[in-house]
Amino acid sequence: MALADATSRKNITAPPDYWLLGATLALAGLGLVMVLSASGIMAEQVMDNKYYFFKKQCLFALAGLAIMFFSSRAPKGMLYGPVYLWLALVIILLVMTLTPPFSIKAGGARRWLSIGPVSVQPMELAKVVLVFYLAYFFSRKQDLVKSFSVGFIPPVLVTGFLGIILLMQPDFGGAVFLGMLFFLMSLVGGARISYLAVSIIFGAGAVVLLIVQSPYRFKRWFAFLDPFKDPQNTGYQLVQSFYAFGSGGIGGAGFGAGKQKLFYLPEAHNDFIMAVLGEELGFVGVSFVMILIGVILWRSFKIALEQEDLRDRFTAYGLTMVMGLGFLLNLAVVMGCVPPKGVAMPFMSYGGSNLVAGFLCVGVLLNLSRRTAQ
Fold this sequence. Notes:
This protein is mainly alpha-helical. The chain has one domain. The chain is 69% helix and 4% strand. It is built from 15 helices and three strands. It has a three-stranded antiparallel sheet with strand order 1-2-3, covered by helices on one side. Helix 6 packs antiparallel against helix 8, helix 8 (153-168) packs antiparallel against helix 9 and helix 13 runs parallel beside helix 15. The two termini are 19 Å apart.
């Protein structure tokens, strides 16, 4: 017993994973530099202050670092304990986005809440909270996880309810993201493959139905197959992204010397910031980002595998998937491998909600890394 207690104390006081911390800080730092480069021209034209978006991103980064530090040292009971409270809070915030007095409408959708001078996107918090809930559920229901009514239906209902709220905003991509999280966590959680196969069929059917019923969504969804067929409309953003990557070459045009951010490439400092990086820093810069992403995912998976507690392992795996899917989908979109959809590049794209959520994921992973056997 004494030996077990000593080991537990040693694990709790072990140093955090410095590889994960270092790679995250390096990627976030590079993201700040690229936000400055990608947003300066637009900020000067629209806000009459070329540093407007950069300054806001710096404030978001400071807030994210504070949350990362807190979550890396907070007791697990504080993070895990009120999982249903976190779930209820996220549902309330998502519902509030549908209410005009509280929400902000942009691009025909209501996905943001206005909190004073700050806009918050609850969807980013919903990803993390869904991971907490699914990790709790699958770790506590291992003896019943193979049953349909007890082990499969509850997480389907929770994920489906969150997805329906997102579709009402509408946020089609966000709902698909939560569905992917559910599938990946159910797969490792022990759910029957037959149940997952049926859920994929129903999910795919729902996606097809939603695409077919929306002419705009239908055109945009299939624009990636041949963006040059309509380069001035549905394929415009992707074509400009290709131009940016293609002109970067090996070493790039140089920091600040890119041309696509001069109002050619929409959302240059947001979802398509990697295209700006590819143009200005070239193959070398993109490769450096890929290495940092590889280190982050490597260390995150390592932390998950080293957890002895099942809930810790599922939580670490799920948070790794939140970041991993973000990396994968953003890169796939800007390179034309999947249909275009607004997916932020974790730690790099402009936006406070995604950046803070990313730091929260890393903070919890660092917390868990201090509890693994060294």
